[in-house]
Amino acid sequence: MTDERFLAKTPDGWTDETAASVPLVFLTAYYAFTDLAGLKAGEKVLVHAGAGGVGMAAIQVAQHLGAEVFATASEGKWDVLRSLGLDGAHIASSRTLDFAARFPKMDVVLNALAGEFVDASLSLLESGGRFLEMGKTDVRRQDDLPDVTYRAFDLIEAGPDRMRSMLADLLDLFDRDALRPLPVTSWDVRRARAAFRFMSLAKHIGKIVLTLPRALDPDGTVLITGGTGGLGAELARHLVTKRGAKRLLLLSRRGLEAPGALTLRDELIGLGATVDVAACDVSDRAALAEALAGQRLTAVVHTAGVLDDGIVASLDQERLSTVLRPKVDAAWYLHELTRESDLAAFVLYSSVSGLMGSPGQGNYAAGNTYLDALAAHRRAAGLPAVSLAWGAWTQDVGMTGRLGDAAVERMARSGMPPLSVEQGLALFDVATTVDDAFVVPMRLNPADFRTHNQIPQILSGVVSGPRRATAAAGRSAVTLRDRLRGLGAAEQEQLLQEIVAGYAAVLLGHGDASGIDPERNFLELGLDSLIAVELRNQLSDAVGLRLPSSVILDSKTPAQLAKWLHAELASQTDLSAGGARAAGGTAPAADGGVDSLQRIFFTAVHAGREVEAMRMLTAVAATRPSFESTAELEDLPTAVTLADGPRDPRLICVSAPGATGGVHLYARIAAQFRGKRHVSALPLVGFAPGESLPATGAAAARVVAESILHASDGDPFIVVGHSTGGTLAYFAAGELEHTWGIKPDAVIMLDTLALTFSQDDYDNVGRFYLAGIDSPLVNLNSARLSAMAHWFVRLKDISVPPTTAPKLMIRSAITPDGEEIPYTEPWVPVDDVRSIEADHLSLAAEHSAITAGVIEEWIAGLAR
């Protein structure tokens, strides 16, 4: 119920989605320009975020009123502004302040930005100009702006009577084609979270509209193919008794002559439904079209299917056709014949055999995989569809009815026991409410999988295998090189990839290497620094090379590591067939080509001249390419996922700028959150060869803040930083809040000692910044070393307003030597301080479980 003054008749030809997209944005723009600004013909108006919903509406309204319109938007959306009639002289970027120099003086500004963008926009206003603030993330005071009229507003201020008259004015303008509805992107309300995430990334054009899932039309007909079979009959009863279906059309090959068909029809009629049972070969398009003629369908459920099992070599054209025609052909014909129908549901009965494979069912698996693809195809076309990849049902229904008791018992012990009718129908109800094209309704018994140590690869993320203490034996370096000589280059690399994946799988607790994606980052697979060292040691023994300590994390993925190993082996041993074996087989591998800067730096550090060494690196950094705006970067640093789980908010960790640091230093903390909370870590730009460095403190804060924003993916998030990573986390939170109006749920700093630094701090940086340089897990090349020095200098230059987000400091209570640290008030402004029995480095390593426990407890307190 609502006030009738907020309502108006939807124009003819408008969809519900179009109607939903119009009022808020056009009323806001109309109210702003007519009531608040009094915009006149010939005046100049600047519309920020012109490709957004209000922005696009505002451009049209201003043009209708005769104003000269200027607008900003991200460069990727400039074509949208051009489509609204703006030329290049009237368009500028919303990510930079270039508009202040490009555009002339304005009479009116409609603003949705914050910070320095507000200042620049105010500077464009003529004396007596009007500044309309609708974003309200950076509200100014009128008293501070004597030469302009400043108004922060909400549409609701107009009141219901004015709202009604404005709505009438707008509908008249739409009727006269003076205004046009905006582009609309629709999201099912069940995907509201994804819709808001998408909106937060500002990738859309126009308006985003949430739609409600369609309910079955009580006056429409539900079509069930295979409707007189075991599964079809049970579903028909369920739809009538539990889902409110009133009209059913049951199709099967024999129709009413099928066993039990008459009884089923009479039973359903007795339950109050109107039921037609028809004989139809649904794989015959003409016959199916005749059966559907005159029907007003509200849902289609395709349960029909036939089995004809056999090994692949025996599957001739006839046996393939027997299985595929009622599955594949029928599904496509149903799609074609109903695509213009106003369906609430299009449900395909697929099988888990298409997902996981099943011995002797190559034809059946292929048919079901087609159904899965068809559902995705329909969804992409904006049509309803879901493919249900069913596990087996019990013998009284479904295709297991032809199996003997022993076979069913084996199935039950396999880890995927059959579904009872009650379980299956309950899963049907749940699965058809999920807004996904592909759902797998089945039972799992993880204990049976582990007992038989036969876990299908696709279930490796659901069912964990037994952890083994050591890798399989028998892969001596000599034997391996002999095996490699008998293979081509591509096969050699593949074998090495399998060896890497095998050792990694054992160390990560997988039953076999099937759970290791060779193209996935080692850190995403779950490796931490300890496992990386152990993997390096085991691979060194296996391949007969002295591998550098940084080889695992530098290689990033198993596939890249295998490629590197292949190149190293080939450089020392003739791997061609009949090639000679290198003497000893243990020549050291190249360690990344130690360059001159590294040698000078290490020599200075080992001589106790850390200060001179750091100053040398600073001078080197000054010669490297730099950027003042993130717009100059091809890509922002990409976060590495270290853990995943359902709890919000997610944790985004910011790397400290130490030479031996990086995302891997958060791996052991993240391991404590696996299955509980999403944790990712951001690298700092400039640490990899070829990357630019931030030219100013402002650029440093901005690149970290924007990288955090992208890593959040629109979800609630907490920023975490260890040591000076905490300093960067704190500044980035302030940048997010005061530039974009986006405030993290919290900031957590792990033993962050200060926010401001002096030259003395810089000179004494060695103790923590240079920790572990003698056995680093990353390659200490010139890019990494000079970036370390450069980022520390930039820390001194950052000046950002403080964040108002809740802040936690976790402090180390002991020194690296084990001595107790007396408590002092932190130099960093925080809301809570927790001390733990760990030192500066161990709180992220061997004491990471304590650190994670404190974090989780504190987050739980925030929610209360």
Protein model, in words:
The protein is 40% helix and 14% strand. It is α/β, with parallel strands linked by helices and 864 residues long. The longest helix is centred in the middle third of the chain and has 22 residues, at 317-338. Strand 10 (247-252), helix 10 (261-270) and strand 11 form a beta-alpha-beta unit.
Largest sheet: 7 strands, parallel
Number of helices: 32
Average pLDDT: 84
Count the beta strands: 24
> What gap, in angstroms, lies between the N and C termini?
33 Å
Strand residues, percent: 5-15%
Low-confidence stretches: 402-407, 466-476, 580-594
Oligomer state equals single chain
Topology:
Layout: H1 16-21, H2 23-36, E1 44-47, H3 53-64, E2 68-73, H4 78-83, E3 91-93, H5 99-102, E4 106-111, H6 116-124, E5 125-133, E6 149-152, H7 159-175, E7 184-188, H8 192-200, E8 207-211, E9 221-225, H9 230-241, E10 247-252, H10 261-270, E11 274-279, H11 285-292, E12 297-302, H12 317-338, E13 345-351, H13 353-356, H14 362-380, E14 386-390, H15 405-413, H16 421-431, E15 438-439, H17 446-452, H18 477-485, H19 489-507, H20 522-525, H21 529-543, H22 551-555, H23 558-572, H24 596-606, H25 610-621, E16 626-627, E17 640-643, E18 647-654, H26 667-671, E19 677-682, E20 693-694, H27 697-712, E21 717-722, H28 724-740, E22 746-750, H29 759-763, H30 766-769, H31 782-797, E23 807-812, E24 832-836, H32 848-863
Parallel strand pairs: 1-2, 1-4, 2-3, 4-5, 5-6, 7-8, 9-10, 9-12, 10-11, 12-13, 13-14, 14-15, 16-20, 18-19, 18-21, 21-22, 22-23, 23-24
Antiparallel strand pairs: 17-19
